[in-house]
Design brief:
The protein is α/β, with parallel strands linked by helices and 184 residues long. 60% of the residues lie in helices and 13% in strands. A 5-stranded parallel β-sheet has the order 2-1-3-4-5, with helices on both faces.
Amino acid sequence: MARILIVEDDTAVREALDGALSREGYLVETAAKARQAEQRIQTAGEEYDVIVTDMRMEREDSGLAVIKTAQEKAPSTPVIVLTGYAAVEDSIKSMEAGAFSYLAKTGREVEMDLLLLHVQRAIWLRLAPVRFFDALDHALDVLIPALESLKTVTAQLKSLADARNRLLRHLTQGGSDVRGDPEV
């Protein structure tokens, strides 16, 4: 179950995000301020799978502070920035700081669907290397014993080919027996 930290100073928005993500089966923790989120990130026993943060809370750059802390403490954790003040400068600063994505809060239902899509994509991309290496480990677990079996099969095929060659030589040359020994 993926762990998500929501950082949002607006109680109604925070509760709506918490409810929507919880209904999707995520384990959600919340913080009302950037400083509270920074402390949670610093002291978390294990990394969050995704952090969703507002851009402007107690300061205009509160979201950037959350991104910076996440990058320092848990650089593989994707941070999704939400903002009610969608500004190109903030978007650029967020992405330069290491944000996974930057979304505007519009208050429309489609916004929640878009956020869920970004969260799912962030989790999938974060776990994709793990899944790849798990699949590789599984393939090697199957392949290594198969290679040992192939060595045996290869040796048996080589032996059969040698026997076939001796038989053909015997039949075509007529002067030696099947084992390859000259007739006496």
